Amino acid sequence: MAGLKFMYFLSIIVLLTITTGSGCIMASPPAVKGAYWPSWSETFPPSAIDTSLFSHVYYAFLMPNNVTFKFEIPDSTAVLLLDFSTTLHRKKPPVKTLISIGDGGANPRQFARMASEAKSRKVFINSAIEVARKFGFDGLDLDWESPKDPKEMEDLGYLFKEWRDAIQKEAKTTKKPPLLLTAAVYFSVEFLWFEKYRKYPVAPMKENLDWINAMCYDYHGYWDTTVTGAHAALYDPKSNISTSYGLKSWIRAGMPRHMVVMGLPLYGRTWKLKDPNLNGIGAPAVGLGPGDEGVLTFAEVVKFNEDNGATVLYDVETVSTYSYAGSSWIGYDDTLSTTTKIRFAQALGLRGYFFWTLSYDDEWKISMQASRAWPIDELY
């Protein structure tokens, strides 16, 4: 607990040092307490969302036509979109709503083709704005995960500039507040995948986005079943694959701190231990543990731990939690690790946090603790 108190006071010091020459605290943009809502959920409607815990909620996901790059909205989806925005705007308190375009399972080539030419970018942008206005949303979020080379990163920069220009023009014409424009991005500003180096176009991003949502999770998972891992580690003493490294890399590259939002997972990743007696982070494994592709929602993790009498441990070195029962091993975040990460984000001067995904929590345990740890009125 002493560590948490230190992080809290450090965050206050950071905020108090952002001052004008007269010694007064400079105005900061409102904190972001975001979360993505899975539109495919059959048991978690928008009416079930506790809006007192969030400031922005993302509808996940929409995809444009893969030939025309326009959004073709079926009647069933139109009903969902309208219900989502209307319900969350009428709730007390209301929250801002954004449509998230893409997702990790989407074909990245579709975005690459769209962004490669000015004509197709314009079609996509205008259609996205039209859909957001038609269904009463406050903004748009692009989830084009990991453009594959420098050319695609450059095209991404063009897309954001033209998108912002179109948003400003539309707002001026309609006399409405400009739509928000955000992007879900890799945890680090630069990375090497399949022997190809790539780096996000920070300059056009900071000039044209409202903020970025850094996906600080999925560092380990089904793609490597040989050892267990803290899939959302704040620190990793053995590599740069960690939240602390990724967030700081964005800042070093020139992204303003108030435009960086830290991602937090509401799920765990699982492994099957090779030897139940070797059960720490990095322990030998021989496959995936319980859950679909080795994934359990936080609610399922809690139930698994209770049903199996699992041993639950907090790892100070990585700032993560893990549990094991027999040969089953789960790495995840709980209220303690989440709170510590939020204190870290505050001390770093970030804009806020977001969760993937709303329906995975267990009776709002983590969402509630996170909201308490970052009180908007107190810090902003």
UniProtKB/TrEMBL annotation:
Keywords: Glycosidase, Hydrolase, Signal. SMART domains: Glyco_18 (SM00636). Residues 1-23 form the signal peptide. Coiled coil: none annotated. It holds the Pfam family Glyco_hydro_18. The keyword 4Fe-4S does not apply. Belongs to the glycosyl hydrolase 18 family. This is GH18 domain-containing protein.
